[in-house]
């Protein structure tokens, strides 16, 4: 399908939460390029530019067809001069030279490689780069580098966890975790969140929310038996606090960042494996988040994502409704009160937004 008439893209909202974005991206050629530019801006600590490229990519992802001419982008929100130039270049040459330049850049390559390790963020990656380190081998052979527990596990299982996770593997993990959680607490509630809840076929990890029907019984809910590694964070949740405006800040719920062993015969159709690897298992990254049941809906919405969708939901709440929204709560600044949210639908209703299904939140 070709989208060349401006009328076809009329009335696209600047907010991702007012668009419906499925996993079907008709403009991958453009959005992949913009993602490289966003990432490079992030590495250069230019948050504004990074966000601008991510917003532009998100708008293109929501379009019902491929952009075939610059005219087709007329009237679309969030597409700045820079993005227009990228689109034009790709339309004309099939590639963007700035993007290729970045991809060949030594610093970009090193930071991308280092941040692909579990437990390594842009700050650590930059520190290693400044020390002159360029490869995993150099990092692991540098005596002055002290890896923390998370990073050691990240390197140990790198081959496995840098590989995508399939839907079948996510489903298998769901069964295992459900069984374990129910063994500990028979009436516990488990939900698959993240990209898999949005209908993605592949992911980089598997995200779950666990809670109990009775408030307070979720405290200290722990898992046993299947864990290879557990980075546990106790709850720092404070029910009196107003929702945070900082999207990048982690929420305060109890959570575990895990690496789980998944066996071949636990997965329908088998494991995603590296070539030449005949092991009967692979390691997979799993996030388990334990909100109290009265925060289940806000936590579910926040952890279902996508990041861009949730980021814009929070911006929409603040800018258009004078409300504060994060993974813990929804607060009305005009009425000076917290709004009750039992389901995701309640949150959309409070915000005066049409409900957007999880599979339409791939912004
Ligand atoms: P994936 O795993 O790469 O296939 O894609 P997702 O969408 O599952 O992304 P993931 O696993 O990084 O995170 C799942 C959702 O959880 C994401 O859409 C937003 C939320 N989330 C994760 N980390 C943070 C965080 O540090 N801050 C906030 N506010 N939200 C986060
Ligand atoms: Mg995920």
From TrEMBL:
Any one of the GO BP annotations: DNA modification
Q: What is its EC number?
A: 2.7.7.31
**Can you tell me which residues bind Mg(2+)?**
205, 207, 287
Ranges in coiled-coil conformation: none
Location(s) in or outside the cell? Nucleus
Q: Which UniProt keywords apply?
A: Magnesium, Metal-binding, Nucleotidyltransferase, Nucleus, Terminal addition, Transferase
Molecular function (Gene Ontology), one example: DNA nucleotidylexotransferase activity
Its UniProt entry gives the catalysed reaction(s) as: DNA(n) + a 2'-deoxyribonucleoside 5'-triphosphate = DNA(n+1) + diphosphate
A GO cellular component annotation here is: nucleus
Chief localization class? nucleus
Cofactor(s) in the UniProt record: Mg(2+)
Indicate the secretion signal residues. Answer: none
What are the TM regions of this chain, as residue ranges? none
Class of this enzyme: transferase
Q: What does this protein do?
A: Template-independent DNA polymerase which catalyzes the random addition of deoxynucleoside 5'-triphosphate to the 3'-end of a DNA initiator. One of the in vivo functions of this enzyme is the addition of nucleotides at the junction (N region) of rearranged Ig heavy chain and T-cell receptor gene segments during the maturation of B- and T-cells.
Assigned protein family: Belongs to the DNA polymerase type-X family.
Q: What is this protein called?
A: DNA nucleotidylexotransferase
Source organism: Esox lucius (Northern pike)
Full-protein residues shown? 137 to 499 of 499
